[in-house]
Amino acid sequence: MHAVARRLQRAQDGSDAALLHDMNLAASIDHSTLSGDGFKVVTDEEGGGWRGRVVRMSSNNGEPLPVLAIRTWMPS
User: Fold this and answer.
1) In whole angstroms, what is the distance from residue 12 CA to residue 43 CA?
2) Which residues make Cβ contacts (< 8 Å) with residue 23, sequence separation at least 6?
3) Is the pLDDT assigned to residue 20 strictly greater than 80?
4) Closest Cα to residue 17, out of 43, 40, 41?
């Protein structure tokens, strides 16, 4: 909720459509390429994007699966 609130507060386009577009960008990340701790998913041409860290969760078959834990949205 914090990340969504920051996105709505700081982004130039605060519409629902823009928010959903940005969320879809984060959801479309190829999880097999995630490594390390921190990440940034750039969502606009000014460099704004979701920020957070990679955490390990268990997949349906018990295999470790890296996922994005989004903490906030920064304008650049």
Assistant:
1) 12
2) none
3) yes
4) 43
Judge contact between 41 and 25, C-beta under 8 A: yes
What pLDDT, in 10s, does the model give residues 24-55? 999 898 877 787 778 889 998 889 999 999 98
Q: What is the mean pLDDT of the chain?
A: 88
d(CA 25, CA 8): 16
**By residue range, what is the domain housing residue 52?**
2-74
Number of domains in the chain: 1
Q: Which two tokens stand for residue 21?
A: 């577009």
The span from the CA of 40 to the CA of 19, in Å, is: 16
